[in-house]
Amino acid sequence: MRTDTIRAAAVQIAPDLSGRAGTIQRVLNAIEEAAGRGAQLVVFPETFVPYYPYFSFILPPVQQGAPHLKLTEEAVVVPSPETEAVAAAARRHACVVVLGVNERDHGSLYNAQLIFDADGTLALKRRKITPTYHERMVWGQGDGAGLKVVDTAVGRLGALACWEHYNPLARYALMTQHEEIHASHFPGSLVGPIFGEQIEVTMRHHALESGCFVVNATGWLSEAQIASIHPDPALQKGIRDGCMTCIVSPEGRHLAPPLTEGEGMVIADLDMRLIAKRKRMMDSVGHYARPELLSLNHDARPTATRHERAAPLPEALEAEPQDV
Protein backbone atom coordinates (compact mmCIF):
# COMPACT_ATOMS: atom_id res chain seq x y z
CA MET A 1 0.00 0.00 0.00
CA ARG A 2 1.31 3.43 -0.92
CA THR A 3 2.07 5.70 2.02
CA ASP A 4 3.24 8.86 0.29
CA THR A 5 1.37 12.15 0.28
CA ILE A 6 1.18 14.47 -2.73
CA ARG A 7 0.38 18.16 -2.42
CA ALA A 8 -1.76 19.41 -5.30
CA ALA A 9 -2.83 22.87 -6.40
CA ALA A 10 -5.82 23.69 -8.62
CA VAL A 11 -5.44 27.20 -10.02
CA GLN A 12 -8.34 29.55 -10.75
CA ILE A 13 -7.09 32.71 -12.43
CA ALA A 14 -8.00 34.96 -15.34
CA PRO A 15 -6.14 34.78 -18.66
CA ASP A 16 -4.67 37.78 -20.43
CA LEU A 17 -7.21 38.35 -23.20
CA SER A 18 -4.66 40.31 -25.23
CA GLY A 19 -2.70 37.18 -26.06
CA ARG A 20 -0.55 34.22 -25.12
CA ALA A 21 2.51 36.11 -23.88
CA GLY A 22 0.65 37.68 -20.98
CA THR A 23 -1.20 34.46 -20.14
CA ILE A 24 2.00 32.40 -20.19
CA GLN A 25 3.52 34.84 -17.72
CA ARG A 26 0.52 34.33 -15.44
CA VAL A 27 1.05 30.57 -15.73
CA LEU A 28 4.72 30.90 -14.76
CA ASN A 29 3.86 33.16 -11.82
CA ALA A 30 1.23 30.70 -10.58
CA ILE A 31 3.62 27.73 -10.85
CA GLU A 32 6.14 29.63 -8.75
CA GLU A 33 3.52 30.55 -6.14
CA ALA A 34 2.09 27.03 -5.96
CA ALA A 35 5.55 25.47 -5.68
CA GLY A 36 6.38 27.96 -2.94
CA ARG A 37 3.40 26.58 -1.05
CA GLY A 38 4.71 23.05 -1.45
CA ALA A 39 2.68 21.92 -4.46
CA GLN A 40 4.04 18.96 -6.43
CA LEU A 41 1.16 19.02 -8.93
CA VAL A 42 -0.31 22.20 -10.45
CA VAL A 43 -3.43 22.10 -12.65
CA PHE A 44 -4.65 25.03 -14.80
CA PRO A 45 -8.04 25.68 -16.48
CA GLU A 46 -9.25 24.50 -19.88
CA THR A 47 -7.54 26.09 -22.92
CA PHE A 48 -6.13 28.69 -20.56
CA VAL A 49 -3.46 29.76 -23.06
CA PRO A 50 -4.14 32.17 -24.59
CA TYR A 51 -7.77 32.02 -23.35
CA TYR A 52 -10.95 30.00 -23.75
CA PRO A 53 -13.00 31.10 -26.84
CA TYR A 54 -15.79 32.72 -24.83
CA PHE A 55 -16.85 34.64 -27.94
CA SER A 56 -18.04 31.40 -29.55
CA PHE A 57 -20.68 30.91 -26.85
CA ILE A 58 -22.43 34.25 -27.37
CA LEU A 59 -21.69 35.32 -30.96
CA PRO A 60 -23.41 33.89 -34.05
CA PRO A 61 -21.03 32.23 -36.53
CA VAL A 62 -21.23 35.13 -38.98
CA GLN A 63 -19.67 37.41 -36.35
CA GLN A 64 -16.92 35.06 -35.19
CA GLY A 65 -14.41 35.61 -37.97
CA ALA A 66 -12.24 38.29 -36.37
CA PRO A 67 -12.05 36.81 -32.85
CA HIS A 68 -11.48 33.34 -34.30
CA LEU A 69 -8.57 34.60 -36.40
CA LYS A 70 -7.09 36.38 -33.39
CA LEU A 71 -7.34 33.17 -31.36
CA THR A 72 -5.59 31.32 -34.19
CA GLU A 73 -2.76 33.86 -34.21
CA GLU A 74 -2.32 33.66 -30.44
CA ALA A 75 -2.70 29.87 -30.13
CA VAL A 76 0.18 27.66 -29.01
CA VAL A 77 2.30 25.46 -31.25
CA VAL A 78 3.68 22.33 -29.56
CA PRO A 79 6.64 22.47 -29.11
CA SER A 80 7.36 26.20 -29.01
CA PRO A 81 9.11 28.79 -26.83
CA GLU A 82 5.90 28.95 -24.75
CA THR A 83 5.85 25.23 -23.99
CA GLU A 84 9.59 25.29 -23.33
CA ALA A 85 9.07 28.06 -20.76
CA VAL A 86 6.46 25.98 -18.92
CA ALA A 87 8.68 22.90 -19.11
CA ALA A 88 11.56 24.88 -17.61
CA ALA A 89 9.34 26.09 -14.77
CA ALA A 90 8.18 22.54 -14.04
CA ARG A 91 11.79 21.39 -13.98
CA ARG A 92 13.00 24.32 -11.86
CA HIS A 93 10.30 23.81 -9.23
CA ALA A 94 10.23 19.98 -9.52
CA CYS A 95 6.47 19.86 -9.99
CA VAL A 96 4.11 18.26 -12.46
CA VAL A 97 2.08 20.79 -14.48
CA VAL A 98 -1.17 20.17 -16.35
CA LEU A 99 -1.95 23.04 -18.72
CA GLY A 100 -4.87 23.57 -21.09
CA VAL A 101 -4.00 25.31 -24.37
CA ASN A 102 -5.48 26.17 -27.72
CA GLU A 103 -3.09 24.19 -29.90
CA ARG A 104 -2.47 25.36 -33.47
CA ASP A 105 -1.51 22.60 -35.88
CA HIS A 106 -1.08 24.27 -39.25
CA GLY A 107 -4.60 25.37 -40.27
CA SER A 108 -6.54 23.87 -37.37
CA LEU A 109 -7.04 24.56 -33.68
CA TYR A 110 -7.47 21.91 -31.00
CA ASN A 111 -8.43 21.90 -27.34
CA ALA A 112 -5.26 20.35 -25.93
CA GLN A 113 -4.05 19.25 -22.51
CA LEU A 114 -0.32 19.21 -21.85
CA ILE A 115 1.18 17.23 -18.97
CA PHE A 116 4.73 18.26 -18.03
CA ASP A 117 6.53 15.92 -15.66
CA ALA A 118 8.63 17.24 -12.78
CA ASP A 119 11.79 16.99 -14.90
CA GLY A 120 10.24 19.21 -17.59
CA THR A 121 9.50 16.37 -20.00
CA LEU A 122 6.26 16.67 -21.97
CA ALA A 123 4.72 13.41 -20.76
CA LEU A 124 1.48 13.77 -22.73
CA LYS A 125 -0.19 15.98 -25.29
CA ARG A 126 -3.81 15.06 -25.84
CA ARG A 127 -6.74 16.67 -27.64
CA LYS A 128 -10.37 16.83 -26.54
CA ILE A 129 -12.06 14.05 -28.48
CA THR A 130 -15.32 15.92 -29.16
CA PRO A 131 -15.63 19.70 -28.82
CA THR A 132 -18.92 20.63 -27.18
CA TYR A 133 -21.74 22.43 -28.99
CA HIS A 134 -20.44 25.93 -29.89
CA GLU A 135 -16.84 24.73 -29.60
CA ARG A 136 -17.20 22.72 -32.81
CA MET A 137 -16.97 26.02 -34.70
CA VAL A 138 -13.51 26.54 -33.18
CA TRP A 139 -11.69 23.23 -32.60
CA GLY A 140 -11.09 20.01 -34.45
CA GLN A 141 -11.54 16.55 -32.90
CA GLY A 142 -8.93 14.59 -30.99
CA ASP A 143 -8.36 10.84 -31.19
CA GLY A 144 -8.11 7.77 -29.01
CA ALA A 145 -4.33 8.05 -28.74
CA GLY A 146 -4.82 10.83 -26.20
CA LEU A 147 -6.91 8.68 -23.86
CA LYS A 148 -3.79 7.70 -21.98
CA VAL A 149 -2.62 7.55 -18.37
CA VAL A 150 1.04 8.45 -17.86
CA ASP A 151 3.49 7.68 -15.09
CA THR A 152 4.73 10.90 -13.50
CA ALA A 153 6.57 12.03 -10.39
CA VAL A 154 3.22 12.25 -8.56
CA GLY A 155 1.86 8.91 -9.75
CA ARG A 156 -0.30 7.63 -12.58
CA LEU A 157 -1.96 10.71 -14.03
CA GLY A 158 -4.88 10.95 -16.47
CA ALA A 159 -6.67 13.98 -17.88
CA LEU A 160 -9.93 14.95 -19.55
CA ALA A 161 -11.41 18.31 -20.46
CA CYS A 162 -14.86 19.63 -19.56
CA TRP A 163 -17.75 17.64 -21.02
CA GLU A 164 -15.51 14.72 -21.94
CA HIS A 165 -16.50 13.70 -18.42
CA TYR A 166 -20.01 13.12 -19.78
CA ASN A 167 -18.60 10.43 -22.06
CA PRO A 168 -18.49 7.46 -19.67
CA LEU A 169 -16.38 5.36 -22.02
CA ALA A 170 -13.72 8.08 -22.24
CA ARG A 171 -13.53 8.09 -18.46
CA TYR A 172 -13.50 4.30 -18.40
CA ALA A 173 -10.58 4.25 -20.83
CA LEU A 174 -8.51 6.07 -18.19
CA MET A 175 -9.92 4.00 -15.36
CA THR A 176 -8.80 0.78 -17.04
CA GLN A 177 -5.27 2.20 -17.03
CA HIS A 178 -5.49 2.63 -13.25
CA GLU A 179 -5.17 6.38 -12.93
CA GLU A 180 -4.35 7.49 -9.41
CA ILE A 181 -4.84 11.23 -9.95
CA HIS A 182 -7.25 12.67 -12.48
CA ALA A 183 -6.49 16.19 -13.73
CA SER A 184 -9.52 17.95 -15.15
CA HIS A 185 -10.47 21.43 -16.15
CA PHE A 186 -13.36 23.55 -17.37
CA PRO A 187 -13.48 27.10 -18.78
CA GLY A 188 -15.24 28.77 -15.84
CA SER A 189 -17.10 32.07 -16.26
CA LEU A 190 -19.59 30.30 -18.49
CA VAL A 191 -23.28 29.32 -18.55
CA GLY A 192 -24.11 30.52 -15.01
CA PRO A 193 -24.25 29.06 -11.48
CA ILE A 194 -25.79 25.78 -12.66
CA PHE A 195 -22.55 24.96 -14.48
CA GLY A 196 -20.57 25.03 -11.25
CA GLU A 197 -23.13 22.77 -9.60
CA GLN A 198 -22.90 20.28 -12.45
CA ILE A 199 -19.10 20.32 -12.36
CA GLU A 200 -19.10 19.47 -8.66
CA VAL A 201 -21.42 16.49 -9.15
CA THR A 202 -19.33 15.24 -12.06
CA MET A 203 -15.99 15.55 -10.30
CA ARG A 204 -17.17 13.86 -7.13
CA HIS A 205 -18.76 11.04 -9.11
CA HIS A 206 -15.61 10.37 -11.14
CA ALA A 207 -13.53 10.27 -7.96
CA LEU A 208 -15.90 7.72 -6.44
CA GLU A 209 -16.28 5.59 -9.54
CA SER A 210 -12.61 5.50 -10.47
CA GLY A 211 -11.23 5.38 -6.93
CA CYS A 212 -8.79 8.18 -7.66
CA PHE A 213 -8.14 11.79 -6.66
CA VAL A 214 -9.57 14.53 -8.87
CA VAL A 215 -7.85 17.91 -9.19
CA ASN A 216 -10.09 20.26 -11.15
CA ALA A 217 -9.39 23.84 -12.26
CA THR A 218 -11.80 26.33 -13.78
CA GLY A 219 -11.03 29.76 -15.22
CA TRP A 220 -12.22 33.18 -14.14
CA LEU A 221 -13.09 36.41 -15.93
CA SER A 222 -13.21 39.83 -14.28
CA GLU A 223 -16.15 42.13 -14.92
CA ALA A 224 -13.93 44.29 -17.13
CA GLN A 225 -12.96 41.26 -19.20
CA ILE A 226 -16.58 40.19 -19.56
CA ALA A 227 -17.50 43.67 -20.79
CA SER A 228 -14.61 43.59 -23.28
CA ILE A 229 -15.93 40.38 -24.82
CA HIS A 230 -19.43 41.81 -25.37
CA PRO A 231 -21.13 45.03 -24.22
CA ASP A 232 -24.67 43.60 -24.06
CA PRO A 233 -25.62 42.82 -20.41
CA ALA A 234 -28.04 40.14 -21.56
CA LEU A 235 -25.28 38.24 -23.38
CA GLN A 236 -22.81 38.86 -20.56
CA LYS A 237 -24.91 36.58 -18.37
CA GLY A 238 -23.71 33.68 -20.52
CA ILE A 239 -20.05 34.29 -19.62
CA ARG A 240 -20.37 34.72 -15.88
CA ASP A 241 -20.23 32.28 -12.91
CA GLY A 242 -19.93 28.54 -13.58
CA CYS A 243 -16.71 28.10 -11.55
CA MET A 244 -15.87 25.07 -9.40
CA THR A 245 -12.16 24.70 -8.72
CA CYS A 246 -11.83 21.76 -6.35
CA ILE A 247 -9.83 18.78 -5.16
CA VAL A 248 -11.75 15.59 -4.36
CA SER A 249 -10.66 12.38 -2.64
CA PRO A 250 -11.40 8.80 -3.84
CA GLU A 251 -14.18 8.82 -1.24
CA GLY A 252 -15.89 11.70 -3.06
CA ARG A 253 -15.09 14.31 -0.43
CA HIS A 254 -13.71 17.81 -0.92
CA LEU A 255 -10.22 17.99 0.57
CA ALA A 256 -10.41 21.79 0.79
CA PRO A 257 -13.20 24.32 0.32
CA PRO A 258 -13.87 24.69 -3.43
CA LEU A 259 -13.35 28.04 -5.13
CA THR A 260 -16.42 29.34 -7.00
CA GLU A 261 -15.52 32.98 -7.62
CA GLY A 262 -12.47 35.19 -7.86
CA GLU A 263 -8.87 34.24 -8.38
CA GLY A 264 -6.93 31.91 -6.14
CA MET A 265 -5.75 28.35 -5.59
CA VAL A 266 -7.21 25.30 -3.94
CA ILE A 267 -4.39 23.36 -2.28
CA ALA A 268 -4.70 20.01 -0.57
CA ASP A 269 -2.61 17.01 0.44
CA LEU A 270 -3.51 13.75 -1.28
CA ASP A 271 -3.08 10.75 1.02
CA MET A 272 -2.47 8.06 -1.58
CA ARG A 273 -3.49 5.32 0.88
CA LEU A 274 -7.10 6.35 0.27
CA ILE A 275 -6.96 4.78 -3.20
CA ALA A 276 -6.49 1.29 -1.76
CA LYS A 277 -9.09 2.02 0.90
CA ARG A 278 -11.67 2.86 -1.74
CA LYS A 279 -10.76 0.09 -4.18
CA ARG A 280 -10.85 -2.58 -1.49
CA MET A 281 -14.61 -1.98 -1.50
CA MET A 282 -15.21 -1.14 -5.17
CA ASP A 283 -12.73 -1.46 -8.01
CA SER A 284 -14.72 -0.75 -11.16
CA VAL A 285 -12.02 -2.15 -13.45
CA GLY A 286 -11.05 -5.03 -11.17
CA HIS A 287 -13.06 -7.19 -8.79
CA TYR A 288 -16.23 -5.15 -9.36
CA ALA A 289 -16.03 -5.43 -13.16
CA ARG A 290 -17.73 -8.07 -15.32
CA PRO A 291 -15.50 -8.09 -18.41
CA GLU A 292 -17.17 -11.22 -19.84
CA LEU A 293 -20.38 -9.14 -20.03
CA LEU A 294 -19.14 -5.58 -20.50
CA SER A 295 -15.82 -4.36 -21.87
CA LEU A 296 -14.36 -1.38 -23.72
CA ASN A 297 -13.10 -1.37 -27.31
CA HIS A 298 -10.55 1.47 -27.34
CA ASP A 299 -8.91 2.39 -30.65
CA ALA A 300 -5.68 4.00 -29.43
CA ARG A 301 -4.21 4.62 -32.87
CA PRO A 302 -3.47 8.26 -33.81
CA THR A 303 -5.63 9.44 -36.66
CA ALA A 304 -3.98 10.67 -39.84
CA THR A 305 -5.16 12.31 -43.04
CA ARG A 306 -2.36 10.76 -45.11
CA HIS A 307 -1.26 7.14 -45.24
CA GLU A 308 1.86 6.69 -47.33
CA ARG A 309 2.50 3.42 -49.09
CA ALA A 310 5.57 2.75 -51.18
CA ALA A 311 4.93 2.30 -54.89
CA PRO A 312 5.29 -1.35 -56.03
CA LEU A 313 8.40 -2.21 -57.94
CA PRO A 314 8.01 -2.76 -61.67
CA GLU A 315 7.43 -6.42 -62.44
CA ALA A 316 10.76 -6.73 -64.25
CA LEU A 317 12.67 -5.59 -61.16
CA GLU A 318 10.80 -7.99 -58.90
CA ALA A 319 12.06 -11.01 -60.84
CA GLU A 320 14.91 -13.02 -59.38
CA PRO A 321 18.29 -12.13 -60.90
CA GLN A 322 19.54 -14.73 -63.40
CA ASP A 323 22.91 -16.37 -63.13
CA VAL A 324 25.15 -15.37 -65.99
UniProtKB/TrEMBL annotation:
Family in the record: Belongs to the carbon-nitrogen hydrolase superfamily. Nitrilase family.
SUPFAM superfamilies to which the protein is assigned, alphabetical: Carbon-nitrogen hydrolase (SSF56317)
Pfam family, one: CN_hydrolase
Domain CN hydrolase: 6-272
Name this polypeptide is given: Aliphatic nitrilase
Xref: InterPro entries: C-N_Hydrolase, C-N_Hydrolase_sf, Nitrilase, Nitrilase/CN_hydratase_CS, Nitrilases_CHs
PROSITE patterns, A to Z: CN_HYDROLASE, NITRIL_CHT_2, PIPLC_X_DOMAIN
Single GO molecular function: nitrilase activity
Disordered: annotated span: 302-324
Source species: Albimonas pacifica
NCBIfam families in the record: nitrile_sll0784
